[in-house]
Amino acid sequence: xxxxxxxxxxxxxxxxxxxxxxxxxxxxxxxxxxxxxxxxxxxxxxxxxxxxxxxxxxxxxxxxxxxxxxxxxxxxxxxxxxxxxxxxxxxxxxxxxxxxxxxxxxxxxxxxxxxxxxxxxxxxxxxxxxxxxxxxxxxxxxxxxxxxxxxxxxxxxxxxxxxxxxxxxxxxxxxxxxxxxxxxxxxxxxxxxxxxxxxxxxxxxxxxxxxxxxxxxxxxxxxxxxxxxxxxxxxxxxxxxxxxxxxxxxxxxxxxxxxxxxxxxxxxxxxxxxxxxxxxxxxxxxxxxxxxxxxxxxxxxxxxxxxxxxxxxxxxxxxxxxxxxxxxxxxxxxxxxxxxxxxxxxxxxxxxxxxxx
Length: 357
Ligand code: X2X
Prior knowledge:
By secondary structure, the protein is an alpha/beta fold.
């Protein structure tokens, strides 16, 4: 039986179980024993710690009524990270802290963050999230049965390589690059002349270990936890795309909560998002994130200078200046023509306006 068919059979079983449980569950103000949360990476990643913080704060703010259990490493999805928003909208999974990349199969508008060499600074990213672009994305989610709660962050994605330093598009020619299975990635890397192979994050680590791929791209927070220097000795900081996270809930279930519970969960997501963003930006911004961690969260378990840390692990860290970045941007121009249509002209326009503010 094909793995797709097996997956759909598995989905059906999950869905029937959820339907049975909800049919027999008492309706008025009864809470589930456990609310299942999908998280793509493990508990030691900054992203995983953001999920744990959310669960902890929700429990606290709802006086123990809502208990969220994070399922790390996409274990609820057998690794199939791109299925998360579909399952949350069906109500099979209660909630998620997931990347806009993994949400993009259901919400194509999320690909605006993946337009290559488009958003390149934290200021721009914050303007998008808090501006019209963010609200357009949140309303698209609501239409698809998802209740967005708050933004988190995976980070700007950087490329690492075992074979050579990547300084220009020519360096990518013929390199096998592991990418997420979202189609815009295949288009970006093929356009730049590389040979992209898509795989889920769980399989990617094995592929790095076995040297099946020459390169991969992920934000610094992921590189640190995955200890990428064990497999790839070079990293190019090119900020080629932003990768926000979103805390979100199944809309159908959300509507069954009282306004008080909704308010508490929402406040928990906003606070956990602030914490998680500060973790991933620590040492990469103007110092603000380290201050937030210290003053607001009394958090010391963080790598204060990730660049120096990676160099200390014998990695070569390459920073691209604006001329070099412009070379890459020119190389990926055809991706814009195709993807602006898929994302939607209004969203792309609002992103440009938000960034111009
Ligand atoms: O799969 C990836 O590269 C990861 C972990 O960054 C995402 O989930 C988008």
